[in-house]
Amino acid sequence: MSETLRAAEIVRVSLGARSYDIVVGHGALSMLGARLAPMLKQPRVFVLTDETVSNLHMGALEAVLKPVGIRTHVLSLVPGERSKSFSNLEHILDWLLSTGADRSDVLVAFGGGVIGDIAGLAASLMKRGMGFVQVPTTLLSQVDSSVGGKTAVNTPRGKNMIGVFYQPRLVIADTALLASLPARELRAGYAEVLKYGLINDPAFFDWLEGNGADVLALKPDAIQHAVATSCRAKAAIVAEDETEGGVRALLNLGHTFGHAVEAANEYRPDVLHGEAVALGMVLAFRYGAAEGITAPDVAAKVARVIGASGLPVELAHMPGGPYEASQLADLMQQDKKARGGRVPLILARGIGQSYIHPDADLASVAAFLAGELEKA
Ligand SMILES: NC(=O)c1ccc[n+]([C@@H]2O[C@H](COP(=O)([O-])OP(=O)(O)OC[C@H]3O[C@@H](n4cnc5c(N)ncnc54)[C@H](O)[C@@H]3O)[C@@H](O)[C@H]2O)c1
Ligand SMILES: O=C(O)C(=O)C[C@@H](O)[C@H](O)[C@H](O)COP(=O)(O)O
Ligand SMILES: [Zn+2]
């Protein structure tokens, strides 16, 4: 990894007293020590990571903290979605208590979205709130999960069902860390990048259609543009609606379908979150077409572009299947956006024209899913 910082971009998340910076750049990790030091009362941080990230990158993290005299206490979890559990939450809190962390300490999430989501929840609960900093190491976590303060653990009854909004004080997104990420994980993160184009930025979607291969090849200019543009898009929505009373629900495009698949598959690693979201976005556009909301050729184009990057676009071929339409529809009803038994779905009138459809008819969704499952 290059030690030099290459044209870092700072994206501000404007939330009044809880505002913070996202530092995006190749080598941005080198800025962590200087940014952390003023936050600390004692020269130490607590680091939650997973075993893979620890083996690959803990040396680099410690190397940037040592020169400014910051010591680390490290806890590594088993990698993967199943670690985002109640039992691990208890384990993390017990570790923080047993190592004497107090409210003035900072918990650094060093890993992907699994680590970031559970670390944020632990930080919010620890003595009713300790400091929290995100150092995301996957594409998905750099463009999405490290920003905006959604924290959670999963339960068998649904994805991210237990959590709070708790903002980090800083996000350092070092794109150099992505060099060690497996191609499948890069693609999964790329699904959430495509999401921003589909929500409200058709020019970005067009750019991704032409430059997606360069993003996935981690060409420096392309990856930086993709990460920074995604962070700016998310920061703007979060600043407008921190706790998902309205417009933030757009960030859930593809997720009501996708989360149902993840839960039905019991969070097994053969379906990654980004893969479920990729499929979910295609299903949202196709369902829109079935309901006369989305032009069929637009839905077909979305499936073609998503599929061209190697992401799944067919429920019938999804690992972990065969899925049942009624089970998926039941899981969709558990969605956190549901109010009084009504489930909003994020649908789209076109590329970059997503909107909150307030009251989806789950019987018609189940019939639509049954049709998707019958495809050869
Ligand atoms: N809070 C939010 O707003 C938000 C947004 C999107 C997704 N999420 C959540 O994020 C999670 C998915 O995040 P993810 O895709 O980052 O998964 P992840 O955290 O499981 O990481 C994916 C895999 O990549 C490995 N890895 C991480 N960094 C690496 C690196 N630099 N080099 C090599 N391997 C590396 C990990 O060990 C893991 O095996 C899901 O739980 C999802 O619900 C949350
Ligand atoms: O930040 C948000 O808001 C999002 O919806 C981002 C999603 O990509 C992310 O997967 C989020 O965790 C889903 O939220 P949930 O509330 O449906 O669990
Ligand atoms: Zn997501």
TrEMBL record:
Localisation: Cytoplasm
Main localization of the protein described in the UniProt heading: cytoplasm
Enzyme class: lyase
Residues in 3-dehydroquinate synthase N-terminal domain copies: 77-187
Top-rank lineage group of the source organism: Bacteria
A single MF term (Gene Ontology): metal ion binding
Binding site for Zn(2+): E192, H255, H273
Protein's name according to its UniProt entry: 3-dehydroquinate synthase
Classification of source organism: Bacteria, Pseudomonadati, Pseudomonadota, Alphaproteobacteria, Hyphomonadales
